[in-house]
Amino acid sequence: MGQALKKVRSGLNTRLGFFILAVLLFSIKSYFAYKTKFSLGVSSGMQELLLAFNPIPFAVLLLGLALYMRGRKSYWFMLLIDAIMATWLFANILYYREFSDFITFNLIKSSGAVTNNLSQSIFGIVRPTDFLVFTDVIFLIIVLAFKGIKMDTKAFKLRYAALVSSLAVLLFGANLSLAETDRSGLLTRTFDNNYIVKYLGLEAYTVYDGVKTTQNNATKANANSSDLTSVQNFLAKNRISPNVEYSGVAKGKNVFIIHLESLQQFMIDYKWDNQEVMPNIDKLYHSSDTLSFDNFYNQVGQGKTADAEMMLENSLYGLPEGSAMVTDGTTNTYQAAPAILGQNGYTTAAFHGDVPSFWNRDNTYKSWGYDYFFSKSYFANSSKASYNLGYGMKDKIFLKDSAQYVQQLPQPFYAKLITVTNHYPYTIDSQNTSIKPFDTGDSTVDSYVQTARYLDESVGEFMSWLKKTGLEKNSMVVLYGDHYGISNNHKPAIAKLLGKKKVTNYDLANFQKVPFMIHMPGLKGGIKHTYGGEIDVLPTLLNLLGIKDSDTIQFGSDLLATNRKQTVAFRNGDFTSPTYTKYNGVYYDSNGKQLKKLTTTEKTSIDDMQNYVTNTLSASDKVINGDLLRFYEPEGFKKVVKGAYNYKKSAALKQLKKANKKESTSLVDQNGGKSTMSEYETDAPELKK
Ligand code: GP9
Ligand code: MN
């Protein structure tokens, strides 16, 4: 025994021995992190084996680079690589906790646009055990520093180092082929980054992502107008005609798009603490002149809000990774809602109570044709600490301040208002709290009801102002939840909220429903059960507004049309429909019963849906990745001139003044030149004198 221990010790005192120890510790640590920090959906012995094995090839390859160096340097270099890999793992753990996904290069490239305010979230999500991923590195540093292991300064033969590198490649080859046998098309279809990490590991995923990003940039350079033909063919095959009963019923009306941050459909009519949680939104939902949809899904990917905005205003999907507004918002050509409406006589404006750079809105909105972008600096005292929370100004203050500008917009206008208070981590000050938190015991989930209530009150105040000023009569108000607020990482809490013992993947699919409502006095409303999602909003609105939409490059369809396909694509290639649902790769029938073995009929239908979903997502990606809209214009549409827009406060206010001189159609003009702000009632405690 003593002999064996001695052997191990002397082995560790060689460079190769130390290297093997480092690889071993790294692999154990990675496996520990995979098991405890991510939910990768391991569902078989083979997958478990690959999960344990997959850190090894890259550890051998990367730590093995140090073997090419001489002397003590070699040791320190190995530890440096080890530390970098640990830091990368750590960063991914934090990111994953909030977004259920891994970091991408696109995301890093765009970090300038998204880091703002993110630090607060990161602070809120880091857990002490996350730091365990540094244990092996610290341990190795200590044993070297205190000479528990001696450094071997003898030269390591280059050809042995090369042998180690070759071994790494060999091991990776074995890993990849085992992975491909278990899941074919792993690297070609890749709708889900979780799969790649599960089968090939975090390091392989990173390399893969890097290669793809480089390819994407090349795609744009290589794309040409003939690429658009296949997209157009796909759209022509799937295009359906809108519901003529509703065509033009909102012609010439103002349009409000009220973005309800992180609001999910299950909150509609939800009772808690012996009260209705969202009385204002519920009332709108049930109003006879509101078209409401109870099978409307969010379809966002990593881009979250940005993906929602992309779908809502372009009927193009977000990208499988990163935020298309960030990666392709500045440079691509778009034919977005603001541009279309702008060319139909509308004034267009976006409102957001944070810095304009977030999600690259300041550039993207120009590409989309927004005349105005009222962001934080436009609003009085907007940097006051008490006016802000998390991602920007508190909704009540923000909406009131927005009204100040809304009333100055020449009508008809298209105004998008982006709320933020109901955002992770759902913190709210007690003076703005009017309902007790949920009691699931999951702290993130529990306060969600309080910020949702605050959002509801904010919307209620804004809607009252619309009514009082008469603006409501001339407007179509569209409200939508952008994406889930409670992520799938909170299953026990979700089960509790839904009154279930356990949630299945089917429940989680349904949990992706978000509110979508179109309210307009005189509109023939009702709760519609059609299956649809964010991608379908623009065609629906254009039909209501009576704007021709028959030759646009849009991937959704009118939600009111009678012959809709009703297959809703999720960004990772899963889908739902009135008949079948696929979520996390598992199939369900319409009763939520899991389909383990598909009958021939089921298989035919499901294959058909999967084909459609795969094709529609990839065609949409082609449009964005290849910047294909630069090769095409719908009839009558004029290309957006981005340089014509200036969102600097001074310039914009001047422009607004000029516009008001030219046409006296704003609410203020209609009110005899007087502001209507005295009609705006808010109980925001911050605004109390
Ligand atoms: C930021 C806000 C939040 O401006 O829209 O974005 P999200 O984190 O929900 O994507
Ligand atoms: Mn959001």
TrEMBL record:
Q: Which residues cross the membrane?
A: 12-34, 49-68, 75-96, 131-149, 161-179
* Bilayer topology: Multi-pass membrane protein
GO MF annotation: an example: transferase activity
> Which pathway, per its entry?
Cell wall biogenesis; lipoteichoic acid biosynthesis
Location of the protein in the cell: Cell membrane
By its UniProt entry, which Gene3D superfamilies does this protein fall under?
3.30.1120.170, Alkaline Phosphatase, subunit A
| SUPFAM superfamilies from the UniProt entry | Alkaline phosphatase-like
Top enzyme class of this protein?
transferase
- Pfam families per UniProt: Sulfatase (PF00884)
Coiled-coil parts of chain: none
Instruction: Tell me the ranges covered by the Sulfatase N-terminal domain, including all copies.
Output: 253-547
The principal localisation class reads membrane
Domain of life of the organism encoding this protein: Bacteria
Query: Where are the compositionally biased (Polar residues) regions?
Result: 665-679
Regions of compositional bias (Acidic residues) in chain numbering? 680-689
- Which keywords does UniProt give here? Cell membrane, Membrane, Transferase, Transmembrane, Transmembrane helix
InterPro entries named among the record's database cross-references: Alkaline_phosphatase_core_sf (IPR017850), LtaS-like (IPR012160), OpgB/LTA_synthase_biosynth (IPR050448), Sulfatase_N (IPR000917)
Q: Which family does it belong to?
A: Belongs to the LTA synthase family.
Protein name (Swiss-Prot/TrEMBL): LTA synthase family protein
The organism named in the record is Loigolactobacillus jiayinensis
Q: Which lineage ranks, top first, belong to the organism behind this chain?
A: Bacteria, Bacillati, Bacillota, Bacilli, Lactobacillales
